[in-house]
From TrEMBL:
One of its GO terms (molecular function) is DNA-binding transcription factor activity. The keyword Cell membrane does not apply. This is XRE family transcriptional regulator. Signal peptide: none annotated.
Length: 180
């Protein structure tokens, strides 16, 4: 099977298993290093054997695994065990939000239209773009397909100024409001 014919989750599972082997890490050691449960790691890795995974990881899980493996999250989902890109500490949700917004605008799609075309509820893309939702990889596959893209493309690092601006908006919206 080629990389292009595998689902993102299956490719992720192969990359995870191969990188873990390269670093001589057991599932327990990766769990301790990443903060992701051993059970979740096992379930993600089962996707490589063709078993439907019980756990489809969310972006936050990818961030934890990528950091523990010192592998950029884009390489993790693209099957690049050797790490073609320099490790970036950019939060994957912020990357995805920026890239979805950019590609969506280039294609002339509204958030609502993209949500519908990708089989998601009406405000789904909006919630991702405002960093209010931590999507599963399988959900991003349908959005990427609609955008004629890949999940790895959606995880491309953003320019630092755009990343900082998006992150600042998230931090500002997370800040408690003063009732006075």
């Amino acid at each position: 099977m080629t990389k292009e014919s595998l689902s993102t989750v299956a490719l992720l599972s192969q990359t995870l298993r191969a990188k873990r082997a390269e670093l001589s890490l057991s599932q327990d050691a990766l769990s301790a290093r990443s903060g992701v449960s051993r059970r979740a790691i096992i379930r993600i890795e089962l996707a490589a054997t063709g078993e439907p995974p019980d756990t489809i990881p969310r972006l936050s899980t990818l961030d934890m695994l990528a950091q523990a493996l010192q592998l950029d999250v884009q390489d993790l989902v693209a099957g690049n065990v050797s790490g073609e890109r320099a490790f970036s500490g950019q939060i994957s949700l912020v990357r995805v939000a920026g890239n979805i917004a950019r590609i969506r605008r280039e294609l002339g799609l509204s958030q609502e239209r993209l949500s519908g075309l990708s089989g998601r509820f009406r405000e789904y893309v909006h919630r991702i773009e405002v960093l209010g939702f931590n999507p599963r990889i399988s959900d991003l596959e349908s959005i990427a397909t609609t955008l004629k893209s890949s999940v790895a493309d959606l995880l491309a690092p953003l320019a630092e100024d755009e990343y900082s601006e998006r992150l600042a908006k998230r931090i500002a919206s997370d800040a408690p409001t003063n009732p006075e």
